[in-house]
Design goal:
With 80 residues, this protein is mainly α. The protein is 50% helix and 0% strand. The chain is built from four helices and no strands. Helix 2 crosses helix 3 and helix 2 crosses helix 4. The longest helix is centred in the first third of the chain and has 14 residues.
Length: 80
């Protein structure tokens, strides 16, 4: 994933896809990434697969661990 890439997240699957891309770009298996981020393999797998009931705190932990950050901004009318 290149620097300063922005993505609009509309559902949990969008987050999962970005996490999977970042993990793959880092050359990490799910097991390696889960260990590095301090979460279980099951959680990381669920996150990458877009499970809707994932824990937000752990999700942010994974994002930070993979060098991603979550930025929120108010939706503009032109964004619809």
């Amino acid at each position: 994933m290149k620097q300063n890439t922005k993505a609009i997240i509309k559902n949990p699957s969008d987050i999962g896809a970005l996490v999977r891309q970042a993990r793959a770009a880092a050359g990490l298996t799910q097991i390696q990434a889960a260990r590095a981020c301090g979460v279980g393999i099951r959680f990381l797998s669920d996150l990458e697969n877009g499970k809707s009931s994932i824990h937000l705190g752990k999700t942010i932990q994974v994002l930070n661990g993979l060098g991603l950050r979550l930025v929120m901004k108010r939706k503009e009318i032109s964004d619809e």
